[in-house]
Amino acid sequence: xxxxxxxxxxxxxHTGRSRQxxxxxxxxxxxxxxxxxxxxxxxxxxxxxxxxxxENIETYIPAYTxxxxxxxxxxxxxxxxxxxxxxxxxxxxxxxxxxxxxSALGVAVLACSxxxxxxxxxxxxxxxxxxxxxxxxxxxxxxxxIPLEAASNAANVAIRIGTLVQDLAQQYSQTRPWLLLDSGxxxxxxxxxxxxxxxILNKTRGTASDVVGAMQTSFLRAHNLQLGMYDNxxxxxxxCSGVFVKGVEMLExxxxxxSLLKVNPARSLEELNSDWTTTxxxxxxxxRQFEIPxxxxxxxxxxxxxxxxxRDLHPDNFPFEAAKEIFGxxxxxxxxxxxxxxxxxxxxxxxxxxxxxxxxDVGTGSPAPANVRRGLDEIAIRLEEDEQxxxxxxxALADSDKALDEAFEKLLNNKSxxxxx
Length: 421
What we know:
- Helices cover 64% and strands 6% of the residues.
- The chain is built from 14 helices and eight strands.
- A two-stranded antiparallel sheet has the order 1-2. A two-stranded parallel sheet has the order 3-4.
- A hairpin with a 2-residue loop joins β1 and β2.
- The mean pLDDT is 90.
């Protein structure tokens, strides 16, 4: 078609080039845009989580280990933990973008050619930071590690999205949940009128699994290939396994789910007070205030729980006299003498309250409200820096597109002037 329109001179367009370096460069450019779209979606989710966390710094909720209530924390502290992990994802994307944003163009098949092409200028015009230096690496080897690194970053995020979804979905198995999505995000059952199924959570979890599966596909397709084969060259892009197409969808669904979040702080506090998640704080208070050995404090707290569960007692109605009796029995058993229980009844109740347990936690990274506020402020600063970086990357690509158009226009004008002369 070009020859028909322009004559044999049109074949000059292929001078010094090969399908190998052109295809590789095209894939690099497509991967670059896919990663930027994924990063933008991740930042939107981070922004949503940060907003919810700041609204729930003193919303007390249970933390779980081994699927069992472990200790009280706050919703803000919980989300802060995920925000820290997503910050590491951001760091990985930033670091990997340096490798993604490099050009293969100009190496022809894999060893350049006799034409003295300016590969640095080609990279600049296409918005790449620089060329991949070695020709073989540029056209053949980089097609393995660079896309696979990017796919791994996306799948890494997907694993924790799945964890977030699991924690949210777990609430739907409770008869009186403290964390739900707006009713508009649920769908009913065709047979059971009482059911409200968390459709968006199920879809998010499935999409996160798609991302992990797509990443694994890309690795398997790259496995045991000799150089120059086609098999893996599009394995992380949308026309093959769709790591980033599914990745963006996953993040958008998760952000939408959190936009529909409904939190019931009174119910979550009730959930904490219905169990014995603060007994570690009781043992620590005895050790810290009265130098009671850890073994005694821990055994005492454990026996309090055993006694309470056998009688359906809770921290707010446990008989104080029974606590004193249990403490005396424990000290007599372990120390061969009955020691007095030195906490007052008011102190005993306070130590067992979730609010006291959280607010008395100290050290960098604790759920104490002051710590959480500082942590969220630091997250906000990093998030703003990351969003500025993303805008700068997109602006740089737009500027390079403009510069490329101007260079072509200048070339065409020069050719026109030459013909006139």
